[in-house]
Amino acid sequence: MAGGGRISTDEGTILTVNGVIINRVATPEGTLIKDGQGVLVLGSTNAFSTLLNVAEGTVVLGKEGALHGASKPPALDVDGILDLGTYSVATPELSGAGGTISNGTLSVTSATLLGGDEAVAALAVPTTALSGTLTADVETDGTCDRLNVAGDLTLSGVSLDIVNGASLRGSHVYTLAQCTGGTVSGMFSGDNLPENWHVEYFVDRVQISYFAGMIMTVK
């Protein structure tokens, strides 16, 4: 199937694409956009390698290697639902707001982009390993972009970038990641937090809080 492009499915329908989806020449090159509230099943080892954008509805990986890519796996932007089909998936970049990724394991090798849109939302993910950079927005009311992890979360060589640090308020604790049924391992390699703000690591969550005295982190 040539061209990547846009596939829409109506609510209550399931569309299975068994042909190979390749990089398209036209803009956006190498991008597959999923619209509509129905289900799209990717049933082949596809070759588009820029982006899978699950804007609406559900995308199901019906075969291992469905996100193989021609030369690299595509980035993932998930505002709907991405069902990994029990497979392990690696992506260079993850973004999304209010979306859900489930039924497999995920590794992000370069950037997890939750922030930058001046809004906060949660992104649900399965057992996940992060490297590169985690970007998040915060609000003055104590809310922030958050990863809800249905399993383990591993931080390996990942730095934290709070986009709008001036919105942090010392009366609040900001939860960046929460694990259900799993644990957190690893630590951020660095951060851009304002003075007296600290990252705290717990068995099942990662949070940032304000503390002006001496702090000791045991991991």
Mind explaining what this structure looks like?
- This protein folds into two domains: 1-83, no CATH class; 85-219.
- Helix content is 0%, strand content 48%.
- The protein has strands spanning 5-8, 14-17, 31-35, 39-42, 51-54, 58-61, 75-78, 81-83, 88-95, 100-102, 105-113, 122-136, 146-162, 174-179, 184-185, 190-191, 197-201, 205-210.
- Strands 1, 3, 5, 7, 9, 11, 12, 13, 14, 15, 16, 17 and 18 form a 13-stranded mixed beta sheet that branches.
- A hairpin with a 3-residue loop joins strand 17 (197-201) and strand 18 (205-210).
- 35% of the residues are buried.
- The mean pLDDT is 92.
How does the SSE layout of this entry go?
Layout: E1 5-8, E2 14-17, E3 31-35, E4 39-42, E5 51-54, E6 58-61, E7 75-78, E8 81-83, E9 88-95, E10 100-102, E11 105-113, E12 122-136, E13 146-162, E14 174-179, E15 184-185, E16 190-191, E17 197-201, E18 205-210
Parallel strand pairs: 1-3, 2-4, 3-5, 4-6, 5-7, 6-8, 7-9, 8-10, 9-11, 11-12, 12-13, 13-14, 13-15, 13-16
Antiparallel strand pairs: 14-18, 17-18
